[in-house]
């Protein structure tokens, strides 16, 4: 099922209306779903491994708190922020500018030109830190059970 971006995300409180929440693929909706975005986003950082460690531990702690409250939407949003911490820091690990594609390139087959790798080992370490917490979250037994129960809704 495709993620429904047509919902009025600005007016929906997903804590009060969890039945409207769609998991989607990967990080879809991570910057749209309130009040969770506003609760988690201030802690999401990955500039250095120390900052990434503090951030990922805080977000993982929030993930566990949401699970304890039987708040699947909050737990899934925390999982998405952990995943996004990995993917964004990985992008900066591969491309110091954070840009993966050349903004000035167009090919005859409409494929974007990927910029050459310009690796950053510090961001790679940050990515590894977030990846470990993301994997821990997505493999959590209670989370997996809640995910299975939420999908059919």
TrEMBL record:
The lineage of its organism: Bacteria, Bacillati, Cyanobacteriota, Cyanophyceae, Nostocales. Residues 93-102 have a biased composition (Basic residues). Residues 93-117 are annotated as: Disordered. It comes from the Bacteria. This is DUF4385 domain-containing protein. It comes from Anabaena sphaerica FACHB-251. Pfam families: DUF4385 (PF14328). InterPro entries: DUF4385 (IPR025494).
């Amino acid at each position: 099922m495709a993620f429904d971006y047509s919902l009025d995300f600005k007016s929906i409180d997903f804590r009060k209306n969890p039945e409207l929440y769609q998991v989607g693929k990967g990080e879809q909706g991570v910057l749209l779903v309130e009040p969770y975005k506003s609760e988690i986003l201030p802690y999401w950082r990955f500039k250095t491994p120390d900052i990434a460690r503090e951030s990922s531990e805080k977000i993982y702690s929030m993930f566990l708190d949401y699970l304890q409250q039987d708040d699947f939407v909050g737990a899934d949003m925390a999982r998405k922020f952990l995943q996004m911490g990995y993917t964004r820091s990985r992008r900066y690990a591969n491309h110091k500018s954070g840009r993966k594609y050349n903004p000035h390139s167009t090919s005859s087959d409409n494929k974007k030109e990927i910029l050459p790798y310009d690796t950053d080992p510090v961001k790679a370490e940050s990515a590894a830190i977030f990846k470990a917490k993301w994997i821990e979250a997505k493999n959590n037994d209670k989370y997996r059970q809640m995910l299975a129960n939420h999908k059919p809704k």
